[in-house]
Amino acid sequence: MKILTLHGINLNMFGKRDPKQYGTATLAQIDDQLRALGQELGAEVECFQTNFEGEMAERIHRAHTDGTEAVIINAGAWTHYSYGIRDALAILKCPIIEVHMSNIHAREAFRHTSVIAELARGQIAGFGVDSYLLGLRAAVSAVQQAQG
């Protein structure tokens, strides 16, 4: 089972950026935890991060044909306004799980809206690194359900 985890803009700064909101784990540590849990769950986890919207759209496009069976995405600030990322995700036929380290609904008003949410199987927010790990569990479950 192939699961793609997408990290959006500024998320390469985890561990350095606003530890009150995002904790102290680095993106590399999060990716390592995802891959380790993926092994336990029988899933190959690929992690991809970019600060360039077009590059993110291109990676999503590749997921349409490269055997990706589910996508976990934390689009960062793009969550709230990127119709380009949203439209790229809409091409996919596989389950999409939206995750956020912080509780976006308890923060600034502009963060309460996700243009991705209506495409997602579900949204997990506010649990720090566990948001990603819970997202991976949800993705694996969604793939297993689809396989019957």
| Mean of residue pLDDT values | 94
Largest sheet: 5 strands, parallel
Shape: globular
Distance between the termini: 14 Å
Radius of gyration in whole Å, from Cα? 14 Å
Which class best fits the helix and strand makeup? alpha/beta
Q: Give me the strand/helix succession.
A: EHHEHEHEEH
The total of beta strands comes to 5
**Helicity level, as a percent range?**
25-40%
Spatial order of strands in the largest sheet: 2-1-3-4-5
Instruction: Show unreliable segments.
Output: none
User: Strand portion, in percent?
Assistant: 15-25%
Helical stretch tally: 5
Short description:
By secondary structure, this protein is an alpha/beta fold. The protein is 39% helix and 20% strand. It has a 5-stranded parallel sheet with strand order 2-1-3-4-5, sandwiched between helices.
Describe it.
The protein has 148 residues and is an alpha/beta fold. The protein is built from five helices and five strands, in the order E-H-H-E-H-E-H-E-E-H. A five-stranded parallel beta sheet has the order 2-1-3-4-5, sandwiched between helices. Strand 3, helix 4 and strand 4 form a beta-alpha-beta unit. The longest helix has 19 residues. It is globular, with a radius of gyration of 14 Å. It starts with a strand and ends with a helix.
